């Protein structure tokens, strides 16, 4: 009776598991870019809300729903960003409390 080896891509590529996908510098840049993109989206939502509010005040826009939706969208994105910031600060503080 002949015994054949089980062929699996996981077995052949096991050396790739031990190599990091990104260096710490690359990961830092990736996080920075993602965070910057999120902050830009929050800023755009706030700016859009402010513009629509001004248009409503001057009478150039009649749809109150559109203004309220833009305001709520800006509010929610800002709240989410503040919560992410709080979690990042909390994680940093937890790391700083660790004893080495």
From TrEMBL:
It is found in: Bacterial flagellum basal body. GO terms for biological process: bacterial-type flagellum-dependent cell motility. Keywords: Bacterial flagellum, Cell projection, Cilium, Flagellum. It holds the Pfam family FliE. GO terms for cellular component: bacterial-type flagellum basal body. It comes from the Bacteria. One of its GO terms (molecular function) is cytoskeletal motor activity. PANTHER family: FLAGELLAR HOOK-BASAL BODY COMPLEX PROTEIN FLIE, PTHR34653. NCBIfam families: fliE. Belongs to the FliE family. This is Flagellar hook-basal body complex protein FliE. It comes from Alkalihalobacillus trypoxylicola.
